[in-house]
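Rather than argue in generalities, we have chosen a single entry, letters for residues, whole numbers for local backbone shapes, without further comment.
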Amino acid sequence: MSGKSINVVIGGAAGQGLVTIGQLLSKAVVRAGHHLLVTQRYMSRVRGGLNTYAIRMGGEDLSGGTESIDILAALNAEAFSRHVGDVVDGGLVVAGTDFETGEREALRIPFEELAPKPLFHNTVMLGVLGRTIGLERGILEDLLRQTFGRKGEEVIGANLEVLRNAYAWASDRDYGFSRRVGPGSGPGRMMLNGNEAIALGALAAGCNFVSYYPMTPSSSVAMTLIAKGAPLGLQYEQAEDELAAMNMAMGASYAGARTLVTTSGGGFALMGEAVSLAGVSETPVVCIVVQRPGPATGMATRTEQADLDLVLHAGHGEFPRAVFAPATPEECFYLTHRAFDLAETYQTPVFVLSEQYLADSYRDVEPFDLDGLPEVARPLLEWNGGEYKRYAETEDGVSPRLVPGFSEALVRADSHEHDESSRVTEDKAVRVNQNSKRLRKESGLFEEVIGPDYYGGENADVLLVCWGPTLGACLEAVDRYEGDKSLAVLHFKQVYPLREEQFMDFLESAGRVVAVEGNATAQFARVIAGETGFVIPDRVLRFDGRAMTWEYVLKGLTDIL
């Protein structure tokens, strides 16, 4: 991967427009046919602070982010001072003339000369950066026409003039950066982040109800669902709190809707009681938990993988569940679709566990194979089988789920322990039978577990075990490793339940196994130990609020090996 990608980092304060510049430049990169990976770091404030929008572009598929910078576009002095040390030899610094850069050479942009007023400074930066990374001006012009299309020809014309002036200004200068990357898979690919892909996966599964209480970094799942789904008939509700959101979702599910709830760690903690209600009432619901560092408010806009324990053990009592942990927007889409099918098939809560890095990470994505998606299970609308028993005891624990109001049958549900007809009971035999019936569904979930993906040769000297979006950093670390050992990666996209026969051979045949996780206590390594007895003693753990990178993994391996 070395030398085959360019990492452009735009740094500045909230309110300076770096996201606008970054998104426009990212779209242009994808339209030019390059592969793309965006990493956003931002502080929990409306204005000020120091934020970055990193665009990594390449001719090969990009697996993860990087900490080195090829082009630094500093919108203020703090962005320059904090990140100039990360610029590689031969890299480029782009900045305005409103602060000093000391002895560091930089391409200094005369914004006042190139733009009639500050409103156009973003367009100036877009033109300069577009030229420095070799994008055709026509792509940038088309992008501006579409972006400002609703504002009329006058606005479009003014921005086009500024763009052309900035592009020409950069073309006339020798700024010492001539690196280029080859095209990727060509144009025609989508640009999506993880949260958008989750929302599209839910819509593809027939989701028609979402309830939520806004919480960064999960909110854009609901916002995307509403924007794309409302025209298709999706109903939505911003509840007064997280517990209400989960209860609303279950009410809608009881009435036959395909429901989704989205939240982050603190909000999910408040949903715990309702998660149990879904368990005892056997109500299908898909819950999206987008992780951020805790405890409590922690670092609300940063990333971490520390809510696995919370999701695995949420709710009181014992009931089945499944937990997915996607690594890419593609996995966000397909695993969310699968979560809806499992939730309905086994009438139980199913979780998709993402994190801020993936939520805000834009990638270039092939259009999804909608025709290849399997049918999602449906509840019953008709009943002709005699007396209807909502919680009838069955061999696999799955009872017929009839939607009320579509037949003459009486459909009841209750949060207490109940008999087969949903009448409240404290009979000890019935209790044992009903609890056992619910837990028998674990066998079905177990049979449908998606096994981990293995990358590397047989009997590797070192096996990196990871889950969720740490996959990209691990794969690139293996690619860049220059030592004398063979490295491989074992990645889990489903973290519960686990099937030993799908991965134990990899663990036992590796010379050394290292857990790579975005938390302080190796939560998933503990899950593996609890489920299999296999203890992973070596660990590379990151919990500073930043995404795992290949540099961090290699440094950790150096300390271990």
